[in-house]
Amino acid sequence: MKNKQNLPLWAYEKFKETWDAFLKSSKAASINTSIGQETLSALQRVWPCSEFIAKNCVQRPELLHNLISTGDLKRRYDKNEYDERLEKTLAGVDNISELKKILRDTRRREMLRIAIRDIAFLSDYHQTTKELSSFADACIKVSLNILHLWESKKSGLPLSQDGEEQKMLVIAMGKLGARELNFSSDIDLIFVYPCVGQTDTTASPLSNEEFFIRIARSLINVLGSMTGDGFVFRVDMRLRPYGDTGPLVVDLDSMEDYYQTQGREWERYAWIKARAVTGCMKDQEQLARMIKPFIYRRYLDYNIFESLREMKQMISNEVLNKGLSNNIKLGPGGIREIEFICQTFQLIRGGRILELQEKNILKVMKSLSDNNFITSDTSNKLKQAYIFLRDTEHRLQEYSDQQTHALPDDPTAQERLAFSLKNPDWESFLKILNKHRVNVQNTFNHLLNTQKTNEKNEAFKNNIIAIWQGFKDKQEAIDILISVGIDEPRSVLNMFNDLKDSYNIKHLGQLGNERLNSLLPLVLKEAAGTKHPELAVKRILELVESIARRTSYISLLVENQTALSNLAKLLAGSQWIAKLLTRHPVLLDELIDPRTLYDPPNKKALEKDLKRTMSRIPADDIEEIMEELRIFKQANILRVAAADISGALNTMKVSDRLTYIAETILDYVINLAFSQLEKKYGAPVCFIDGKTCAKGFAVAAYGKLGGIELGYGSDLDLVFLYAESAKEAYEGTVP
Asked: Does the predicted model carry a pTM greater than 0.85?
């Protein structure tokens, strides 16, 4: 066979070797060896890049011929096709050995198909991960149904105390939960059953717990045990409550109690991608309602930064100790750092921004960009890096069906990996890879502030903490404060003492004190750079005292130097802003992005922003709507005030912007009230000059609102007008 694709010599020789062996094994099995040129061209690229594919095609030539003859090799599977195929294949199976055998034979065929399509570029990253996940889902669902049926025949049906049949929920965590499974991934599972009860047999009934433990153990065995035919999926149960020491299966009430009382930060992180693969819909919905408040806090949650930083440090130490710098998952700029970036934002803001309650990481990146949490350029770079790294991960694993993330050291393996990703050589591949890893690492370091501080900054921090904790004598403390730009150090020392004596500070826990120790040096540093340092310190400390027991706000200021810098400037210039932020600390989040803080939106942008904000809230949740309207008003007034103090807006434009805020909210509330009343009483029939009108209602503004001269504390002087009704316009019965 000629090298028509001009393959590298090593690739052509590997293909020729496999082709000869394939012809021989096909002939021995009396299988037709006719393969179309298009498929043959694809195999010329695929076989040299995957020992797993080449070996299975030679050993089981009927698999490849079946994939070709059925057309499955060239097409995407339809939704639920894996479920339907597996149900049909396993129909009538009556023992566990046969079940395991058929599942493993099916896995060999389907993984062969997926790997060929991936390496031959007949499928992209999205389709590959989707099909891997769908196949895993089908194996779990169909196997569990069979095992449940077998155990029910033997032990009876598991029932609730009300006599309702119970079904086990299998919760997929990690990449399977997000439908982003990789080629040789473990599947992380948690097993849950709805409620306590027992089976309906009269002779020796089992508790629901024992019933579901039995089928859970059987499911792990069916999927994960190694036989002569291999395994289906390795099953990892370590993410369940209490980990390896916890019960294999837990009921929903016990799970809720665990996460309410003992759930840890890393478990919140793990549950972001969680998805129920099996179980009744009402039980899945109950699980979702129960776990959502654990994952997503109602308000901004910057406390998560330290936990994620600790998690990342543990991984970094492992990378260093085990020499994993070339690990594309755990190494610098790898897959894990991209996941950390996205999931950090999800944990901080997902309680308020519903679009971030998303399992698919690429959709999360888009939401982060759409909501201006990262730039579109950063989002695009993260997306490109993620897909490149995941494609590389698949090629590494598709070579021998091994769970590996390490770049090869062997020159032949390096050339093979580069070739599989359409790179001319290893150097070209590394150039692209390193570009992506640098982009990821820069974004990650910026987000989690992982760069080491220099000795000068560390000494400054330690000195301020020592002053705060009383470990410096008065004169030494005064000298230190003067050296950092504080002209009235005695005044600042008195402020420290007043803060220390306040009720909120005295009752801080360990976490709060640690956060405060981190914040105070930063406060002094930022205040020293303002026109009125002592005034800035005074107002910031008053704010800190009011929010101290809500440590998430302290963490926000610790983790965001830009926010603290903006806070110092604004409070040094405005007592009004200081009072506003003290009353409404949720507005501290507005200080993070100077692009929006000092550039308040125009009327059109306000309307668009309010519409998007309110679209996240159910129309009948009036309490939540009112809360969001208040936050919307306060946040936008803060932006106007910031622009006012900085000189970005003159007095006339300040009044314009404040008027726009009032008009936007007023217009929304009128439409909301009209809609609510219309649903309850029907639409009014109104006329103006004998012609019907849409609402027949108007609001006239007087005073400063009418003159577009609204101030920060202005009331709204309004008059409500309505059109004549049908009864007034015409005699007779009102429609």
From this structure: no
